Amino acid sequence: MSLTNEVPQMSLFAPPCQRWKMACEISESSQADYIPEDQITQDAVDYLKSQDEALYPEIHKACQIFQQDCLSRAELEALILVGESDAEIAEHCDLSPEVVNVYEKLFFSLRHRDTPSDWLLKHTVGAPHFTGFKDHHLRQLWAWFALHGVPEVLDQVIWAYFEELEHTDDMGLSVYLHPGSHVHPDLQAMIADCVTPYFPPLYQWDQVFLRYYQSIQELPISEELQTPPSQDYQTKIKVAYGVLTSGLKVTAAVWDCNLPIKESPTEELENILRILDLQKTASL
Fold first, then answer.
1. Which domain of life is it from (predicted)?
2. Residue 62: exposed, middle, or buried by beta-carbon count in 10 A (0-12, 13-18, 19+)?
């Protein structure tokens, strides 16, 4: 049987780490004659059986990143998700392109799914988008911004986090919202909305996202986007910070039936991408 590096035929519902999951199952199985369809999965099986770090250094490093689930994993997955190349990610994360490639294939295989979808949302952000992000959901937050497909915004989101680490003892999402934070108010507004999604929205997400994009790109702010977050939103940022850091319990606000129903996450993403495409076309 000739092994391939192509993505094997899998269920449409298979998770991004399906190859690693398959390798684990095969390595623990008594069916020693079963051969995976692709080379990387076979290499993972051999690594799991032999535990030979020297023979499979890229798999060993990728496995460490995945299992430790720290900042390096959050950053790596977000950059893969936003569409950066292996070389670009390697430079950004201080890894080799080979490690990035192996990680994507074994643990985060989703480059073949390059349009917004419920599958992507489920396997990259998951329940926090609907139930509210907790302080430890940094990886999920970066994934949510990565899903918008705008590397410039994601770079700023990640950069702002590491910048603020120098000014606070917080470690999770609260880093963005702590008192005295230098984080852009539009970014704070969007994060606060992620923390407390059970409140009626005080703004349209796509408008704040686009204004933030225009500001970091030093573009003229569109007239319809010039209104900054309201004073009410400053209160919501404070509430979100309290939720993240002190376990503050809040009661969901009663939803006004006259308010428009919020778009689905996929619709939000598609709308933002459509507007950005129109802006790029207009600037040509």
1. Bacteria
2. buried
pLDDT over 70, % of the chain: 73
Given 114, 134, 152, the domain boundary residue is 114
Query: Are 35 and 60 in a shared domain?
Result: yes
**pLDDT digits over 212-225, tens only?**
888 888 877 777 66
**DSSP structure class, residue 4:** B
* Residue 38 DSSP SS3: strand
Q: How many helices (H) and strands (E) does the chain have?
A: 15, 0
**CA–CA distances in Å: residue 258 to residues 52, 200, 202, 218:** 62, 11, 14, 37
Backbone phi and psi for residue 38, each to the nearest 5 degrees, phi listed first: -125, 155
Whether residues 17 and 155 share a domain: the answer is no
From 252, 129, 158, select the one nearest 200 (Cα to Cα): 252
- CB-neighbour burial class of residue 182 (10 A; exposed 0-12, middle 13-18, buried 19+): exposed
pLDDT, tens digit (0-9, with 9 covering 90-100), for 105-162: 999 999 887 666 788 889 999 988 888 899 999 999 999 999 988 999 999 999 999 9
